[in-house]
Amino acid sequence: MQPDDELCLCFHVTKRKVVNYLRIERPQTASQLSECGGAGTGCGWCRPILEKLFDAQRQREDLETLDLPDSTQHAAGRGEHIRTGKGKPPA
Ligand code: FES
What we know:
Elements lengths: L5 E3 L4 E2 H11 L21 H12 L12 H13 L8
Antiparallel strand pairs: 1-2
Helix pairs in contact: 1-2
The chain binds FE2/S2 (inorganic) cluster.
The site of FE2/S2 (inorganic) cluster has 11 residues, from loops.
């Protein structure tokens, strides 16, 4: 996943935006990332990645080099997630 790829596809929040939010706002819980453009509050597909980035920030890992799915895999996975009724995109 590249910095300008959408991490939260429901709300078009890029990885760069989330990484900057983590660095600047230093949220205390992963759920506070919802304050970053609504990330994670739609279908829920991106939440594991948001949690992974949050945990990495807490462990002071390099967020730029963190192993994340590429954007094509990520989008395809979300499609399946929604098709199988595991999450609902925003209206
Ligand atoms: S992709 Fe982030 S909530 Fe749906």
